[in-house]
Design a protein that fits this description.
about 300 residues, alpha/beta, UDP-N-acetylmuramoyl-L-alanine:D-glutamate ligase, 9-stranded mixed β-sheet, 4-stranded mixed β-sheet, 13 strands, about 25% strand, binds alpha-D-ribofuranose
Length: about 300
């Protein structure tokens, strides 16, 4: 097997998800009774890595955890999922990231992240994993780690012919350096994140216009995730909507991560973009039928069984 066959490097931001299930998300100043509370592994990058791994891909995770109880739990979890831990760095000064989450009956959520150690994953640590990045087929990263770190990883990967995917979540608070876009093969924002990148928060733009504007920044392919409506993609010569699968939703948290993990997996398996999005929609749909984020990611066999 060639070294890069089915090999994806994921910049695996990790948060311990502290999730409360309740009838309705409280409004400002309100106190409500929750129905259930769970602590479980999360973080966008880590969820994406778990998803792609459960789909059978060969994954290297690059992550940073605190030297604390959540960090140890995260490490055990990474091991349980079958990841090597060579590029999981421990920060002795900052805590493991956490994410308090509310999930209401409708399945919708509200999330705050406190990234802790994730904010200190640096370019030197990316350098430590450089051989893995260079020999990978796909690199998948996000914005729960510093933008400079993601940018650096994208650049190394791109310069070595590795297909790069940026999931620009959460929405960037500041303008992204224009230089970053040329290193991105596929960008996968939702509409809010896309408007954040364009610095046009709150603007009323059609999905097509948003994609067009992102494409004109120099990204090669835009995949806009549209929640229940599925996804829209635009590349140089093709564009279109790919509908979402209809399922009984329990919890939408992590659906975007399932989408990104599965998209990276399909791209790594050399499926055309359109087919990869179809596959990613399916995986994301399954993840919403279960409570939680990483634990909700389906295995390949479950995806194959779904019609
Ligand atoms: O996308 C869902 C994830 O966002 C959660 O797991 C939470 O940790 C935040 O990173």
């Amino acid at each position: 097997m060639a070294e890069n066959e089915n090999h994806i490097v994921v910049i695996a931001s990790f948060m311990m998800d502290l999730t409360t299930k309740l009838k309705k998300i409280p409004v400002r100043g309100e106190t409500v009774f929750g129905e259930e509370f769970k602590i479980g592994p999360g973080g966008k990058g880590s969820n994406q890595a778990v998803c792609a791994k459960r789909l059978g891909l060969n994954i290297t995770v690059v992550a940073k955890l605190g030297n604390d109880v959540f960090g140890r739990e995260a490490l055990n979890n990474f091991k349980k999922e079958g990841f090597e831990t060579d590029f999981i760095f421990i920060d002795h000064e900052h805590p493991t990231g956490v994410a308090p989450i509310f999930v209401e009956k409708s399945g919708e959520n509200m999330i705050a992240i406190v990234p802790g150690a994730n904010s200190f994953l640096n370019t030197g640590e990316i350098d430590r994993s450089i051989d893995k990045i260079r020999s990978a087929k796909v690199l998948l990263t996000n914005l729960e780690v510093p933008v400079e770190t993601s940018y650096y990883a994208l650049k190394i990967a791109n310069k070595n012919g590795v297909t790069t995917i940026l999931n620009p979540a959460p929405a960037p608070s500041a303008t992204l350096d224009d230089d970053i876009f040329k290193y991105i093969d596929i960008i996968t924002p939702n509409e809010t994140e896309a408007l954040g990148i364009l610095q046009m928060q709150g603007a009323e733009l059609s999905t097509e216009k948003i994609a067009e504007k992102l494409l004109s920044k120099g990204v090669k392919n835009v995949v806009l995730t549209l929640g229940k409506k599925g996804a829209f993609f635009m590349s140089g010569n093709e564009q279109g909507y790919i509908e979402a699968f209809k399922v009984e939703t329990v919890d939408t948290t992590g659906a975007g991560d399932a989408f990104n993990g599965a998209l990276a997996a399909a791209i790594c398996e050399e499926k055309p973009l359109k087919n990869s999005i179809f596959f990613a929609n399916k995986v994301a749909a399954i993840s919403t039928t279960r409570f939680g984020t990483a634990p909700a990611m389906p295995y390949r066999i479950e995806v194959e069984k779904m019609i």
